[in-house]
UniProtKB/TrEMBL annotation:
Gene name per UniProt: PIMT1_3
NCBIfam families in the cross-refs: pimt
The protein's name: Protein-L-isoaspartate O-methyltransferase
Keywords carried by this UniProt record: Methyltransferase, S-adenosyl-L-methionine, Transferase
Pfam families reported for this sequence: PCMT
Organism: Stylosanthes scabra
């Protein structure tokens, strides 16, 4: 074998080792979340095993540590336990064929998880107001197990102010908001289907993760799940000023 071919073989082996390792570490992260009781269902474990978090964090960022990580533009990818909590809360509203909206989709991690759960007959829509994050999230998704859903159009990510929702594919069975709102934006309530559920952090300094269920008569029931700390749901200008 010539030296170049030898080198390529070696590089291939190293790559295989690292990618295999990443898959194991992602699985290890999921197992930890199961042991701590945050992941309670097989379906949520499965989707978090299938979508490798390592593909969604910037290079050099440890992907499997249970902590939020900086992704630029004064934004963060939420901690794995927050992603798991939101997936658990929304599980019943992420069944095959359903419509899901991810406001403040950032890295695209949760949008990809939603897409896997609602499947090719469903719709998973991400809305993010930093266009650079929209582009990088699409690149992340293209490397992930959700790539074919992006290609066939059942998963899409859009640039825009998520406080307005995304009327094109409304009403939604599930809405997730990944940034803290001062108050729940009315367009998001309007775009929730009767029987639908929204999970949204609400508050400024002290924030609550609220669960908003729309009843069949169109009224909403709201309860608080837990205290949280998210970046604000705000204008692009205010976010970039920090
Ligand atoms: N859930 C994502 C990102 C969480 S950070 C993840 O885990 O990767 C919150 C995201 O909300 C940031 O990417 C931020 O740019 C975005 N954001 C904040 N206000 C917004 C608004 N009004 N419209 C759309 N996106 C917004």
């Amino acid at each position: 074998m010539n030296p170049k071919a030898k080198l390529n073989l070696l590089l291939h082996k190293v790559q295989q080792y690292w990618s295999g390792n990443a898959v194991n570490q992602n699985k290890g992260m999921v197992e930890n979340l199961q042991r701590s009781g945050i992941i309670q269902s097989r379906k949520v474990a499965e989707v978090m095993e299938t979508i490798d978090r390592g593909l969604f964090v910037p290079n050099g960022t440890p992907p499997y540590v249970d902590s939020p990580m900086v992704i630029g533009y004064n934004a963060t990818i939420s901690a794995p336990h927050m992603h798991a909590t939101c997936l658990q809360l929304l599980e019943e509203n992420l069944q095959p064929g359903m419509h899901a909206l991810d406001v403040g989709s950032g890295t695209g991690y949760l949008t990809a998880c939603f897409a896997m759960m609602v499947g090719p007959q469903g719709r998973a829509v991400g809305v993010e107001h930093i266009p650079e994050l929209v582009s990088s999230s699409i690149e992340n998704i293209q490397k992930s197990a959700a790539a074919s859903l992006l290609k066939d159009g059942s998963l899409s990510v859009h640039s825009g102010d998520g406080r307005q929702g995304w009327p094109e594919f409304a009403p939604y069975d599930a809405i997730h908001v990944g940034a803290a709102a001062k108050e729940i934006p009315q367009p998001l309530i309007d775009q929730l289907k009767p029987g639908g559920r929204m999970v949204i952090p609400v508050g400024v300094l002290f924030q609550d993760l609220q669960v908003v269920d729309k009843n069949s008569d169109g009224s909403v029931s709201i309860r608080t799940e837990t205290s949280v700390r998210y970046v604000p749901l705000t204008s692009k200008e205010a976010q970039l000023q920090g």
